[in-house]
Structure formats: structure tokens, C-alpha cells
Amino acid sequence: MTELKQLTRHRAVAAEKQRRSNHQRRAIRTFLPELVQLERLLAEAPEDIQSQVLTRIEVRDLVLPVYRIDIGSLAEDAPVVLLVGGVHGLERIGTQVVIAWLASLLARLLWDDHLRELLGRVRIVALPILNPGGMFLNQRANPAGVDLMRNAPIIAQGESTFLLGGQRLSPRLPWYTGEPEQGMEPESEALKSVIDELLPGRPFSLALDCHSGFGWQDQIWFPYAYRRRPMRRIDSVMALKLLWEQAYPNHRYVFEPQSAHYLTHGDLWDYFYKQVNRQGTGTFIPLTLEMGSWRWLRKRPRQLFQMEGFFNPLVPHRHQRVLRSHLLLMDFLVHAAVSHGNWLPTGDQARMLREAALTHWYREA
Question: Looking at the domain 42-361, which fold is it?
């Protein structure tokens, strides 16, 4: 009888552990920490911070919002800084960096009069989680299996790397482009709606799209990804690079066109850059921050056994270091946008900087 009681007790304990384990797994499946953090941040934000839901993405039994946050000037001629994160669901660190910067900005707004004066001269728009469905599923693509950074109707002018450059074979394979000629994915269309509304006709606008990417160094990429020839206003990128290096000579970023590494089909920023150029005479500089993940893997090789570990720093102190290390760059971009009239090249200076850019980045091409 005693043995039967012990067996019954063990079964009861095991059943309770299984119940708790199942409950935890269900909680994980219905819980996106970055989205909760963002919504909490917005709930506590000052009243003059505007937020809206651009679209909603269905995944399993959930409907996840794509948020847009607007901060600063509503003047039609004010420069715009657009911050984007979470384009690839696996690269959670991109979203976390954008949210960390927003949290810092909103905290400073409570006491920093100089910051409030600055925001009266610039408009900041943030889409911290563009691909909430992919992030929830812990996959690079959106829930339909489409890689959003291969989802624009633009074809590479040259040989692209097999699969990596975009493929239309199957959404079961990585880097699937979808059928953008039939319409881009809802996440891409949400970003397009913001760009179409804000950027054409502005004297200056700048975008920073935050990713993690393989490499030892943090890189700043700029168009084009679909061809090896330079973008139209390459002089403005060279001017921005020099401005950053003069102000912060000990930085760790490498500025390069994406085409220096590989060509891709369907790059969103190539597409948006060309669209904005066709519709206005202002300057638009789209940048992609590629945070080098090889350093995290080198210091903690067992991250190789986790898919998330390929793209994100998992050790707490390294994660905190990454979150704070890019705040200065984002502050710099806001100040550069506000003061673009003081450094944006024209005339002979633009021609000189264009020649310098061609020599620096396109000598072999």
C-alpha cells in the first residue's frame, strides 16, 4: 500500500511538472517580448508622441501589429530620420537596438530642453518591429516564407549569389523573394506607405535599417545591392562618412556599398531610393546597419547550436554592450539630418566627393 501511495504521489508530481511545462510552452508561443516592451514604452510616452498601427499580421491564432511611432516636427519641409528594425525575424537585436534608442530619447524628453528644441526641427519615424510574424516564429522570413529584404520589384543587373541573392523556387528555402510584381508583402507595403507619405519632396531624409550580419566588424551598407555601379548621390554618402569620421575618429564602422559583398534581387532600399529620386529633388540616404555577429560567436561558440545564437548576442553583458554601442550613431544621424545644410555637398565640392567615392569604393568596378 505504501508503494502504491508513493507511485501515485510520483505520478501526481510528474503530471504537475508536465502541466507547468505545457503552460510555459503555450505562454512562449503567445508572447513576443519585444512587442510587449514596445507597447509598454508607448503607453508611458509623453502625449505628443504619436503612434499608430500600420497593418496587422496574422500568425497562428494571433494578430500582431506593425507599429509606427512619430516624434518631432510636423512641418512638411523638416528633414526626416526613419528608423527600422526587425525586418528579419531572427535578427531580434536590430529591433532591440531601435527600442533601446527610443527608450533613451523618451526618457531624456522629460528634462532635456535642448533635445525638445532639436526635435522641433526634425521628424523621427520609427518602425521597430516590421516583421512581428517572423520574429514570433523565430524565422528570418515573414509568416508566408518571404524574405522582406528580397521582396521589391527590382532585378539584379549581374550575377547574384545562388539562393543568397534571392530565389523564387520555394518559400521553404531561405531568401525567397515572393512575387513582388504581383504585389509586395503587407510588411513591405507598410514600410512603402510611410516612405511614400513622408519622403518625396523633402529637402533631406535619411533611413537606418538595423540588422545583424556575419562579419567581424559593424558595417554601414548603402545602395546599391542590385548593381555594382554607384548610386546617384554617392557624394552625399561620402560626405556623411567623412562627417562621422571627423566627429568620432575612433569608431568601429565600415562604410561600404552592399554590392561590394554580393548582388541581390528585390532589395527594398534600392527600390525605395529609386522611387524617392523619381518623385523629388531632395536628398535621401538609406543606410543599413549590419552588426557583426562573428564576434559574439567567437566568444561563445556554443551559440552555434542555437539558431537565434547565429544572429544575436546571448550573454547578458554583451547584449547590453551592443544596445548602448549604437546609440551614439543614431544620435549623430539625427543631428546630421537637422544640420544637413551645413555639410551636404553642392557644386565643385559634390563633384570632388563623387570622384573620391568612385576611387574609394568602385575602383575595381
Answer: Aminopeptidase (3.40.630)
